[in-house]
Write a sequence for this structure.
């Protein structure tokens, strides 16, 4: 079975390959400005430049890259987004002009003359691409902590175990496993984000409150975590009310969503 680490590496390799083609696509868009540099490339590279289109393929690359960066290097997430869009800018200048502006064909003029050339976004795209490429060295570095990725593999196997227990009618045990997975994952998120946990034995709701206070989760994620905590408590503590099969299906599905969407 392919591990999560292998999946991430495969996804990253593909995105880097696609990202290189997108850069060629930008050079194609501004071929008149970069004519001298393009002529120095070999025939294969020049052919790629002639056939690549940036505007048609960038958004798919951006969305996939953003998801990977959010999972592996959340500390660079805001930087990556800022090169694409700056919603709170006061004016459209060379510094604030983004890839989104270029995709929407915005041109800044003054007295009928361009203030700066749209080709300035090549530098910003290169910065995005560099952030993505940096993930590759982190995978290869012996100093890179892969605990989160290994933990993700473990969580997947534990959810499979919960599904088997559900099939055999061991609902409380299945729900308890999911509760532990959620607690471990939320603890990991707090650790990665530098959120201090002061309680000795924090519960799912304790982690939820900390993540909410630090703007890590939105309202829908908060409510999902609360629901999972309620079902988990029914499995662990309530002796009067038995968890139903629907409860267990809900907590297995919800647990999977939490570990895949809360970072």
């Amino acid at each position: 079975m392919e591990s999560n680490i292998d999946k991430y590496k495969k996804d990253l390799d593909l995105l880097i390959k696609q990202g290189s083609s997108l850069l060629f696509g930008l050079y194609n868009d501004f071929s008149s400005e970069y004519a001298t540099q393009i002529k120095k490339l070999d025939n294969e590279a020049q052919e790629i430049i002639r056939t690549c289109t940036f505007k048609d393929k960038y958004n798919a690359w951006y969305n996939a890259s953003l998801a990977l960066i959010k999972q592996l290097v959340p500390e660079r997430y805001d930087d990556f987004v800022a090169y694409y869009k700056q919603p709170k800018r006061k004016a459209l200048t060379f510094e604030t002009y983004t890839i989104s502006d270029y995709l929407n064909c915005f041109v800044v003029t003054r007295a009928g003359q361009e203030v700066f050339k749209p080709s300035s976004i090549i530098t910003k795209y290169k910065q995005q691409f560099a952030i993505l490429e940096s993930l590759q060295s982190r995978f290869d570095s012996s100093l890179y902590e892969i605990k989160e990725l290994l933990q993700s593999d473990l969580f997947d196997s534990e959810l499979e175990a919960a599904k088997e227990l559900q099939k055999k009618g061991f609902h409380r045990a299945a729900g308890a496993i999911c509760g532990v997975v959620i607690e471990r994952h939320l603890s990991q998120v707090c650790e990665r984000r530098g959120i201090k946990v002061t309680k000795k034995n924090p519960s799912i709701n304790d982690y939820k409150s900390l993540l909410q206070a630090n703007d890590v989760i939105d309202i829908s994620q908060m409510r999902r975590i609360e629901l999972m905590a309620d079902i988990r408590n029914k499995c662990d503590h309530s002796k009067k009310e038995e968890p139903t099969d629907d409860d267990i299906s809900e907590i297995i599905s919800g647990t999977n969503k939490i570990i895949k969407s809360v970072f």
